Amino acid sequence: MATEPATETTLQGPAAWEAEAEREHVHGLGPWRLGLRRLKRNKVALLFGALFVVLVLSCIAAPLWADKVAKTTVNANHLSDTITVDGKEKNVVGLDGVPIGPQWLKADGKFFLGADRNGRDIMVRLLYGGRNSLVIGVVAALITTALSIFLGLISGYFRGPTDTVIRALLDVMWSFPVIILGVALGVAFALGGLKIGPLHLAGDSLLIPIFIIGFVYVPYMARPVRGQVLSLREKEFVEAARAQGAGPFRIMFTEVMPNLASTVIVFFTLLIANAILLESALSFLGAGVQPPNPSWGTMIDEGVDRIATAPHLTIVPGLMLVLTVLALNVFGDGVRDALDPRAKVRLER
Amino acid sequence: MGRFIIRRLFQMVFVMFAVSVLTFFIFNVIPNGDPAVRMAGKNPTETQIEAIRKEWGFDDNLIVQYVTMMKKVFTGDLVSYFTQLPVGEEIIKGLPRTLSLAIGAAILWMFVAICFGLYSAMRAGKFADRFLTIVALIGISLPVFWIGALMNYYLGYKAGLFPNGGYVELTKDPVDWAYHLILPWTALAILFIGFYSRVLRSNILDTINEDYVRTARAKGLSERQVMVRHVLRNSMIPIVTLWGLDFGAVVGGGAILTETVFDLQGVGQYAAEAVGQLDVPPVLATTLFAAFFIVLLNAIVDIVYAYLDPRIRLQ
Question: Which of A164, A178, A179, A312 has the most B C-beta neighbours within 10 Å, making it the best mutation to test the interface with B?
Answer without folding.
Answer: A179
